[in-house]
Amino acid sequence: MILDSCLEVHTSPCDRPSVPAWFAEVVIIARHLAKKEVLDAFAHQVRLVRGRFGRYEPIDFLALLIGYAISGERTLSDFFERLVPFGTAFMALFGRNCLPHRSSLSRFLADVDRPCLEAFRTLFEQSSFAEGWSNDSIGGIWDRQGRRYLVFDVDATRQAARQRALPCDPIMPSPRRRLDAVCAPGFTGRKRGEVVRTRTVALQMHTRQWIGTYAGRGNGDYQGELASALRAITSYLRFFAFTPEVALVRLDGQYGDSVAITLLIDAGVHLVTRARGYRVLEHRSVPTGAGE
Fold it and tell me: Domains, the chain, ranges and CATH?
């Protein structure tokens, strides 16, 4: 029994789901992207050719990915369960009408090809690299002669996944694992698992900006991912009218072979890395330079 006469309690037999706590943040991000005309650019510049696309466009799925990333929901199923009651309002924030089903999102992600991904990377670079930053505010370090350098970190991390044993019987069809599309056997380090996935990221150390992120099955293609990271770094420098010689790229031991070091030298950047075998220290020019 409620004795306070100032309170009024209204009940209804109809379900009225509460607005998700993360919905307000989606509103802010969507309005910002619309104001910067990023959504329009994405709708006109990013294309994906599919056999049966239906009524959806890539921007419909971009909206879902943005919402899922902001929500922090544990799984995609939990995200859609909270989103469906407000699907029309959610899609309207991005100028769209219909909320795709989660199975449509899965099929879309499986069909994303390299040209579509690279078009999105280019748009990301154009819209985010210089946003809110100037030549003075992006930081840097200076040597004793007053020369300025921008430090970038390129690092690869591995995530291991465990796999259950599958039944093997001649009368049963060949088993298939969903993780085979994104994971493969590789170096797990001290992590428990049978398959791994590698993610390489490039970070601007002074502003903590993500310059690029790349992923691959198993141990990944470290040379190709390093080349992509170097292209992103040089593109970042061009936005601020800097030459590649301004970049100081820090890498770990995975990139300490002659092929990776050659890629860095050809890109015209400075580097700090660990050599895998340290045979570079045996070169006759190294003791000579140290003595000088």
Answer: 23-128 (no CATH), 141-163+179-291 (3.30.420)
